[in-house]
């Protein structure tokens, strides 16, 4: 089922979570073991991230150093199909601009369509390690709104090769990202929301936000979106803090703020177990307040850790 249909037809809020594929050479059974407790709590859909190729430099025994292209976490499409078949749950694979031409993206979408996967998350993606700013591939998309436009055209049977005849339309529901604290490259939030409006106008069906720890920022973001004519569902994205390192890593990586009250609580903890519990309690309180304000769903970023998400979902849903 399409995510937009799930959101429109449910009489109560639902939850979803984001799954990261295993490192190359990893065991798919460990993914199953990690997600089965969450699957048992009946999420109607699950996101799965996509990881572009990276370039690294390796020194060989003869002393030469060569540039090598590697893929650390392959298998997103196959894993999405395997989980969908195994657990009868709808999957939302990420499609990213980074590292892909429009033709490569078209072929990925054809694969997903043949696998009966109806939902995609359209993202620009991050710069590759070592690059400060995002650079598109030759023949690729610079902005995610362009990716949304391509998917929308395919939904109307319009492929890149305009000599094709009798083309079959795809049937994708399109999710996009929103940023309650603005995207780090945007000069201000007003410009960022204008960019989000372009994605919705291009055909996006719903929005999932970047993680945040202050609900007031989410509510303000939603109000500003509505004022700009963005009327699709907006799903808040949450991530429970579970280690002391998160206080530095999360703001640095995702350009977000962590409320001072939460920082003080985390720093007063004696061990990681206490930190994990504080993170759960904060996320539960966030979730309950968001639901009380009428959000259609709450999306949880697991970042490879599912035990705390299980506890949160049990307390909230």
Automatic annotation (TrEMBL):
This one is known as Methylenetetrahydrofolate reductase
The gene it comes from is metF
InterPro entries reported in the protein's UniProt record? FAD-linked_oxidoreductase-like (IPR029041), Mehydrof_redctse-like (IPR003171), MTHF_reductase_bac (IPR004620)
Q: NCBIfam families in the record, alphabetically?
A: fadh2
A Gene Ontology biological process in which this protein takes part is: tetrahydrofolate interconversion
A molecular function GO annotation: methylenetetrahydrofolate reductase (NADH) activity
Q: Cellular component GO terms, alphabetically?
A: cytosol
Q: Which family does it belong to?
A: Belongs to the methylenetetrahydrofolate reductase family.
Pathway(s): Amino-acid biosynthesis; L-methionine biosynthesis via de novo pathway; One-carbon metabolism; tetrahydrofolate interconversion
**Keywords annotated in UniProt:** Amino-acid biosynthesis, FAD, Flavoprotein, Methionine biosynthesis, NAD, Oxidoreductase
EC numbers on record = 1.5.1.54
Organism ancestry: Bacteria, Pseudomonadati, Bacteroidota, Bacteroidia, Bacteroidales
Q: Which SUPFAM superfamilies match?
A: FAD-linked oxidoreductase (SSF51730)
Reactions it catalyzes: (6S)-5-methyl-5,6,7,8-tetrahydrofolate + NAD(+) = (6R)-5,10-methylene-5,6,7,8-tetrahydrofolate + NADH + H(+)
UniProt-listed Pfam families: MTHFR (PF02219)
Superkingdom in the source lineage: Bacteria
Cofactor(s) the protein needs:
FAD
What organism does this protein naturally occur in?
Butyricimonas faecalis
């Amino acid at each position: 089922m399409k995510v937009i249909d799930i959101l429109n037809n449910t009489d109560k809020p639902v939850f979803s979570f984001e799954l990261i594929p295993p490192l190359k050479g990893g065991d798919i059974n460990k993914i199953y073991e990690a997600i089965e407790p969450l699957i048992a709590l009946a999420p109607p859909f699950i996101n799965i991230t996509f990881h572009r190729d990276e370039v690294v430099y390796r020194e060989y025994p003869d002393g030469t150093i060569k540039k090598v292209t590697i893929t650390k976490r392959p298998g997103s499409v196959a894993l999405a199909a395997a989980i969908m078949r195994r657990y009868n749950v709808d999957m939302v694979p990420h499609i990213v601009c980074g590292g892909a031409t429009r033709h490569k993206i078209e072929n990925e979408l054809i694969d997903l369509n043949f696998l009966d996967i109806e939902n995609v998350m359209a993202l620009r993606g991050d710069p590759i390690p070592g690059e400060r700013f995002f650079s598109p591939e030759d023949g690729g998309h610079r902005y995610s709104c362009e990716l949304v436009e391509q998917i929308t055209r395919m939904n109307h049977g319009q492929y890149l090769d305009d000599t094709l005849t009798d083309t079959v339309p795809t049937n994708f529901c399109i999710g996009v990202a929103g940023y309650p604290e603005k995207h780090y490259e945007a000069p201000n939030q007003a410009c960022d929301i204008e960019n989000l409006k372009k994605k919705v106008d291009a055909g996006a069906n719903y929005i999932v936000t970047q993680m945040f720890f202050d609900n007031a920022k989410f509510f303000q973001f939603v109000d500003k979106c509505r004022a700009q004519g963005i009327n699709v569902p907006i799903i808040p994205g949450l991530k429970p803090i579970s280690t002391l390192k998160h206080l530095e890593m999360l703001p640095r990586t995702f350009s977000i703020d962590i409320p001072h009250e939460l920082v003080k609580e985390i720093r007063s903890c004696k061990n990681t177990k206490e930190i994990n519990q504080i993170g759960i309690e904060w996320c539960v309180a966030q979730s309950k307040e968001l639901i009380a304000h009428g959000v259609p769903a709450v999306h949880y970023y697991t970042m490879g850790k599912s035990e705390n998400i299980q506890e949160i979902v049990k307390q909230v849903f």
